[in-house]
Design brief:
Elements lengths: L2 H21 L7 H4 L4 H14 L4 H22 L6 E3 L5 E3 L14 E5 L8 E7 L3 E8 L4 E6 L4 E9 L2 E9 L11 E7 L4 E8 L2 E7 L3 E18 L5 E17 L4 E7 L4 E3 L4 E4 L2 E3 L9 E8 L3 E6 L1
Parallel strand pairs: 4-8, 4-10, 5-9, 5-11, 10-12, 11-12, 12-13, 13-18, 13-19, 14-18, 15-19
Antiparallel strand pairs: 1-2, 3-6, 6-9, 7-8, 14-17, 16-17
Helix pairs in contact: 1-4, 3-4
């Protein structure tokens, strides 16, 4: 019995099952909660090493049973709402005291925008950072960028810097841990102008990203996340688009237009992969038929640990 493969398979099933239940709104799972219990993973690793060396069937059953019990505990704890709690110095959850001024401004929505001007230049870099947040980008705006935030915790800022022909937009969350051991999940509705050429970079811990980029001229898109769900739909407005995704435990779904050639390079460890319609050229490299002759190309680099990667054509 290959104990290591069985245990990793159970862990992947656990992560995928939780993400699936979240996507169907069956449960609300707060990934930030489980990081309090990180020693559990040391226990699982220790039990695995202890019984794997004996190579006995009883030892394997014990290891799997311990893993299932530990994951059950994490599943239960992950569903406990962190709302109105704070993380104390004694490393325990405590009820958050009322604010001194008696005003709760955390739940107040926020709106940001920056006007579009032709003088801003053709190329715009958008840097997004924050945890415990659901980002959605659908639809366009006459402004350079607009953002509507339904806020539960933390503070958000929008800063725009113009430098010669390059405009840099920084939209970030501050005031809370990026793993969202805070007061709940924020919802951010983004809209961008379709005229500039965009470089979009997202850096987050736990959260969700759902971007429909079909109408945008995207030069590059990068995502660096931990326990996150990423869904992005790309267009073919430019001859070349570079995509880079680095994750820890994540559910990644990328849609690419059938009219563009696409190449995928993977460094995905124990992650699950689904690249329907792609041809495997060598270890970790996949291409769509006719890639070399395609006028529009999308280059995708995937780097993940315990993640699920899906790239499909539409």
């Amino acid at each position: 019995m290959k104990l290591d493969r069985i245990m990793w398979g159970i862990i992947l099933l656990f992560i995928g099952g939780v993400l699936l239940l979240e996507n169907f709104d069956i449960i609300d799972f707060y990934w930030g909660n489980i990081w309090h219990f990180w020693p559990v993973f040391l226990i699982i690793a220790g039990v695995n090493i202890l019984f794997n060396r004996s190579r006995s069937q009883v030892g394997g059953i014990i290891s799997i049973a311990v893993l299932v019990v530990m994951l059950g505990v994490l599943f239960f704890k992950g569903q406990e709402s962190p709302e109105h709690r704070r993380w104390s110095r004694e490393q325990s959850w405590e009820k958050k005291e009322d604010e001194d001024d008696g005003n709760d401004v955390a739940d107040m929505p926020l709106d940001f925008s920056h006007p579009y001007q032709d003088s801003l230049g053709r190329r715009t870099v958008l840097n997004i950072s924050g945890g415990g947040t659901s980002f959605e980008l659908k639809g366009a705006t006459d402004s350079l960028i607009t953002a509507h935030v339904e806020r539960k915790s933390g503070n958000f800022t929008l800063q725009t810097v113009k430098d010669d022909s390059l405009t840099t937009v920084n939209f970030k969350m501050g005031g809370k841990s990026k793993w969202n051991v805070g007061d709940g999940t924020n919802d951010v509705d983004l809209k961008l102008n379709t005229k500039p050429e965009w470089d979009i970079h997202v850096n987050m811990g736990a959260g969700e990203v759902d971007f429909d980029l079909q109408a945008y001229k995207v030069r590059a898109f990068s995502f660096d996340g931990g326990a996150a769900a990423l869904k992005v739909k790309l267009g073919n407005q430019l001859p070349l688009t570079d995509v880079s995704v680095k994750t820890g435990m994540a559910d990644v779904k990328i849609s690419v237009p059938a009219g563009a050639g696409c190449r995928i390079r993977t460094k995905t460890g124990l992650s699950a992969k689904d690249f329907t319609g792609f041809t495997k050229l060598e270890n970790g490299v996949y291409e769509t038929p006719g890639f070399q002759a395609a006028a529009k190309k999308i280059m995708i680099n995937l780097d993940g640990g315990l993640s699920s990667f899906e790239v499909k054509r539409y």
